[in-house]
Amino acid sequence: MKPLLVVDGDSLAHRAYHALPKTIKRAGGRPSGAIVGFTNFLTRLWDAEEPRSVVVGWDTLEVPTYRHEAFDGYQSGRVFDAALLEQLPMLPELVRALGFTAGKAPGYEADDFLAAAVAAAKKKRWPALVVTSDRDSFQLAAKSVTILTPTRGVSELARIGPDEVRQRYDVEPEQVPDFIALRGDPSDKLPGAPGVGPKGAAQILHEYGSLEGALKAGRFSPIAEDLRLYRRIATLDASAPLPPLETQSPLWAEASRLLGECSCLCNCRMRPNTRSSRECREARVSSIISSTNISAATCLGVHVATALRAQNVSLTRDGAQPLHPITWGQVDT
After folding, report:
1. What angle do helix axes 252-262 and 296-306 make, rounded to 10 degrees?
2. pLDDT at residue 224, as a whole number
3. Highest mean pLDDT out of 3-7, 83-87, 329-333
4. Which of 111, 130, 164 represents a domain boundary (last residue)?
5. Residue 84: which domain range?
6. DSSP characters for 147-173?
7. Which of 176, 207, 234 is the C-terminal boundary of a domain?
8. How many domains does the chain contain in total?
């Protein structure tokens, strides 16, 4: 059965941005490497996995989530390049224009949309593939849910199922939020329980079954509420709003043709009376290209990325080169 492909948009956009040379520019010398790299990678994923449809989750950086409000130190100290931040708002619209689902709403993180999509897929009895570099997502691993996590840039992915979660953390996938609460999470600035590392966290969960079991047994009484908060923060929120899942037919040809035209002429405008689904999506892509003044070189780069089925090339510093296929590696420790 074809899977649902669920993508952490921010995670992959960040990796794509850092994987490509910063010399990829649009009109006025503005950056566009994340646009080209993300589209390239999404297209390769479609070719490699042949999913029935795609959901891409996004953070809303302008609005704090309940996690930020509940814990002042959450994700503190993160600094993103201005060149990347400039490109991020374009990507959800590009995903929608290509016929896929983009999940984004105030108060939710990209991870929450991953959980919502996986829950919806389970109701439909669809298998799911979750693409993210965030290890919090390991809590989603199940018989029908596989995590694809990048191990080097965006060209190598490791497949993580329940067995791999057990091998890595020595806990069950559903225990991952408890494990994170006890061990802490440096990337999100969660301190965890003092003196408890990965092995200690796993041993506690073996003995008590859960963080709550350990707390009820009298462990960590002075910081019990803090640990409960860390677990809540680490737990993905499957209530994130998503439209109903449907089998999708990607508009590769239409988007490729449209962006190919833009590679020669970038003053596209929305056409009047565009009523069909295909025409509306084309108009939205045209609007994105027009409103951001993407140059011919950048349009060609995205065009190349969206035409991989026919062309199998990718834009690099030296021009068009054979596209390296996605390979499967081991997740790093």
Report:
1. 160
2. 97
3. 3-7
4. 164
5. 4-164
6. EEEEEETTTEEEEE-HHHHHHHHSS-G
7. 234
8. 3
